[in-house]
């Protein structure tokens, strides 16, 4: 789930068991409106579940268009180890789709 704050910051939450091998943390990032698109970038810290030690970070950049209560777009990801060395990515653009949470 993503939360977009009016000041251009954002928060992202993962369930604790999102990845059985690593600790997916909450992500923090920034967003900006660019015409009819929203561009954003966020980062999450990754830790070893057994030792609780920092093992790296994941960075995700994406662009989406919002239409009514839905959004769609593409994202790319990069992973870095604890020494800040690129370990994966940038990935090919992956499709994103979502729906705004609203009151009934």
Overview of this protein structure:
This protein has about 100 residues and is mainly beta. It has no helices and eight strands. Helix content is about 0%, strand content about 65%. A hairpin with a 2-residue loop joins strand 5 and strand 6 (about 70-80). The mean pLDDT is about 90.
For the structure shown, list the relevant keywords.
single chain, 104 residues, 8-stranded antiparallel beta sheet, 0% helix, globular
Summarize this entry quickly.
This protein has 104 residues and is mainly β. The chain has no helices and 8 strands.
Helix run count: 0
The proportion of residues forming helix, as a percent range, comes to: under 10%
End-to-end distance: 18 Å
Biggest sheet statistics = 8 strands, antiparallel
Order of helices and strands: EEEEEEEE
**Average residue-wise pLDDT:** 88
Q: Provide the gyration radius in Å.
A: 15 Å
What are the SSEs and their pairings?
Layout: E1 2-4, E2 9-12, E3 22-34, E4 37-48, E5 54-67, E6 70-81, E7 86-88, E8 94-99
Antiparallel strand pairs: 1-2, 2-3, 3-4, 4-5, 5-6, 6-7, 6-8
């Amino acid at each position: 789930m993503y939360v977009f704050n009016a000041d251009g910051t954002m928060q992202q939450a993962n369930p604790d068991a999102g990845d059985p091998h690593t600790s997916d943390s909450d992500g923090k990032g920034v967003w900006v409106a660019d015409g009819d698109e929203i561009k954003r970038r966020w980062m999450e810290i990754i830790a070893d579940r057994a030792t609780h030690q920092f093992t790296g970070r994941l960075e995700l950049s994406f662009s989406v268009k919002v239409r009514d209560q839905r959004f769609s777009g593409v994202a790319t990801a990069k992973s870095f180890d604890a020494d800040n060395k690129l370990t994966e990515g940038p990935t090919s653009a992956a499709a994103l789709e979502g729906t705004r949470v609203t009151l009934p």
